[in-house]
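fold-stage: in
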Amino acid sequence: MKTLLLALLAGLAVCPASRAANTGFSVNMIGTPTAQALIFDGVHSSVDLHSLTVNTGDLAQTSLSSGLISVSARGHAMDFSRGLDIPQESDVGFDARVSIGELHVTAFADSNTGGFVTSSQTKGVLNTLTMSWSDTVTFHTSNPNGSDFLLGLTMHDTISVSASFLAPPSFVAGTATAGLSSGPGGVSGLLLLSLQDVVSERFSGDVVSHPPSDTVSTLMHMQNGATLQLTGWLRISVAANDAIGSVSLDAADTALFSLRSDDPLAGYSTASGTVFVTGVPEPATSALALAGLGFVSWQARRRPRQRPAALS
């Protein structure tokens, strides 16, 4: 495991931001898988904690793949009421790929507390990952009045949770949030579009929240020569705390950005040379003004959820 992690870190070495500063486009990946288990020697207790942070920095390239990044923790706890020495195991990891206009990830978290639950010592796993791409788009049109462009964001994901033992304060949960932002702030810039999926199982009851739509879109009116810095991002989190449980998140075909114009006089170019996909539903005709960007409408559309293909 140590050799694998060192090899992965070598391939994902942090690169100076200046490397991508003048290109107009970049990709980035930050992940922190953490696993912990309770160790008890009959008198004292401690937490076996393993955590790994992967931060690629902004890379001046159009794609980046992490491969499998995982950590594990092993320990044991003493149940005095039954006189049992209970083994505990925690495993967590993710496999991710980011490219301009597309973000893909699968992640898992498995925790086995052996039925030993205590609020004073937390055992379990937490797996977080943020991926993003950024590109500068220049809009072109020979229409003297400017042209309309349709931006879209699609998210397909499946989150599965299971738990055979739950007691306060235990839970298992998975979350995926995709977004599209604009401006120099990157992920923290002006939010244009977003989708979220949350599946959680707790001792107090199940909580399941799916996004209102797998695809959202917005229409913007741009003049010839106008530029816009766009950042697409995907944040995922899978966690299992104080439970015999597991959670898996499959977003292997998700956070897909699209851009098109139906005006034959219009087009666009990008700093990365990327041509974004075009298959996005039309927005509703209701108006929504977004200052400085000329947005005129927005719509969230529903369609049946489907399980994405596995990462290759």
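fold-stage: in (second)
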Amino acid sequence: MQNTSIAPSIAPTTPHHGPHFRLFTIEEEDIDREIAMAMRPPIHEQLEAEAAAWIAAGRDPSLLSTGNTFFKVACWSMSTGAQNTEKSSDLEEYLKATLANNGGISGGWSAVLRQRSRCYECSETYRLENLSICTQCGYLTCYRCTPCMGTHKNGNRRCDCDYDGEIVG
């Protein structure tokens, strides 16, 4: 079953950002992804669940965030919103272990920030240290293009995606 929809020309699976739209086909798995995205809890609730699973698995390092997820988790953990959000001791331990597992502040985190990626809005390339990410839709934007639809109650900027994401980084 295929449906026709309008979405950004930059990536058919990203939310509707910016004025540049094109027609594309949505497969059933894309619809399932949209439903799953809409039902995803806020980032701190996701991380609490990941921390609980990590603890239950005996602190298995393979369950710690890596790659793009590490960037999002680290940005959130250092954000105003994270500082204003009550976190369990398990989550605090999970965040510290995730950072350590990825090389710590001076090693892994600095290396991640030096990586380059493009702003999904203007397509210009920046170091990750100059990009922000939505905790729900994963949309990367530069400082000039970062959408903001107000502020979450925790103090982070709100993304204009349909998933009530927080913009961090």
